[in-house]
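P.,

For your records, the input lines for the assembly:
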Amino acid sequence: LAVIGGGAWGTALAIVACRAGAIPVLWARDPDVASSINERHENPIFLPDVGLDPEITATTDLDAAMVGAEAALLAVPAQFLRAVIERLGPYLRPGIPILQCAKGIETGSLKTMSEVAREIIPSTPSAVLSGPTFAAEVARDLPTAVTIASRDASLGRSFMVALGSGRFRPYLSDDPIGAEIGGAVKNVLAIACGVVCGRGLGDNARAALITRGLAEMVRLGLAKGARAETFRGLSGLGDLVLTCNAAQSRNYALGLALGRGESPSSVLQGRRSVVEGVATSAAVTRLAARLTIEMPISTMVDALLHRDASIDVVIDMLLSRPYRNE
Amino acid sequence: LAVIGGGAWGTALAIVACRAGAIPVLWARDPDVASSINERHENPIFLPDVGLDPEITATTDLDAAMVGAEAALLAVPAQFLRAVIERLGPYLRPGIPILQCAKGIETGSLKTMSEVAREIIPSTPSAVLSGPTFAAEVARDLPTAVTIASRDASLGRSFMVALGSGRFRPYLSDDPIGAEIGGAVKNVLAIACGVVCGRGLGDNARAALITRGLAEMVRLGLAKGARAETFRGLSGLGDLVLTCNAAQSRNYALGLALGRGESPSSVLQGRRSVVEGVATSAAVTRLAARLTIEMPISTMVDALLHRDASIDVVIDMLLSRPYRNE
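Structure tokens returned:
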């Protein structure tokens, strides 16, 4: 099994695969990450305080990562996926499937991760892994449930078997686009939740925001051909709830700082990890406009991050929307 | 407007009604509560640190509460509702509607609050108010959104107008049974969430529990004739998210204590407020059995609270359920 991406999530997925009996090879862009994993069996930059099984090895060479691999798990940040797939393509033997593990929408093309892959490697079988998964908890073997979604049920099942274990429970879905929209939009909504909390607006307001946020996530999903019920599942509601309630979430933490009055640039400065919701808020807002659907919360986040809007103004706008049916 | 119930929620609803322009009279069982409200304009037992508008008055006399009232808001604990409605019935003039504001299922009859009312006062028009509402936040005028659900759309709209204000936003629904099932089951799931957190199982596990909990809430709702999409709304997901994430929730706090090893009786001893999920877990479990649907999480909570089950055993049972589709 090749795991493409040496961040927290790629490393945690390698641990999961190893527990389930696979021998994972991890591709990392950063030579320091690869050598830490190979020599000290740890990834202190992205997943500190976790010891790795020595069966997990790493390389900075895509060719080496793919030799003998029966599948590739893609866990690179959304905005880098295209470049990685373009490099990966030549090493993907026919029939070797990919599992999309990153969450986001590409800002240039407004495509989901699977749509980006389909454009570049259209004949590669593909599934999506999503759901409420803080990498640090997965690495520590705390109980976690995920969605594995594919139009090809037997491919979904084979990833379920390859990754599932007592404390890492995959549930199957046949709606990959729904899983992807949920995973992308939740990062944007988590920023909004952080803002509401940082501003001291209370738990009722946060719960209402999560609920109305899910409603706009569903609207985008339906416009993209997803099924509404997917958003009640782990990749929709589950991931949304996780990301909107924990300071562990980079997106929520960003919102919290904004709500307390810090500027976006001061918060983001010097971060090594990508805060996916920042780019995705712009992509989602443009996508909503293109599909002519209303996404007031995501639009608010985009305005805060990219158009210098004031927090109090956007909150007042949200609270003064007309009454409506749910 | 008569508000029946002098607890935290009844008092907060009186504040909401007053802000929206009504003159609420609150009925309280406890003479100390009524005299505090009338003389000192506060309810220190159930809603401390909140000053009440002097327009809000209280009485222990149901007849006096209902004189001239154009509607009655019912905010008494679920297991006391039957007795209160039986006493209230004679004072309800024909056509005066009720708004159900309590959440729970009666343990004896396994009926929702509206079903109990329909049995006793079948010709009284009725609506349901539900959603993510910590009373203390509503009282402080923090932004809150709720569902008002009625089969009679014009009744729903009139309650929306009577209660809605800038920071208390009602959304309309035509699925009262869905709203009630959501409000009842979420208290049970909040106890389960508290257990998972008290046990240190992490945020991934809590998010998975909330998601799978929503799935069993939907199963019960569908069996009772509700619509699945109602559970994506404020009275379903919204209230569930609120109750499962905040130590303010009595139900979550109970679960947290259980998860840390305290016994149910030691936690509940000496409480003045009712922890709705305790009785409702038993009612929901019996209702699920009667309707032959699976509700493993609610059943686990019932087993912990009422059948001396061990926490580790029930958690292992949840984690060892067979893999399935979402």
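Two observations worth noting. Chain A touches chain B through 57 residues (CB under 8 Å). The longest strand of chain A covers residues 144-149.

Regards
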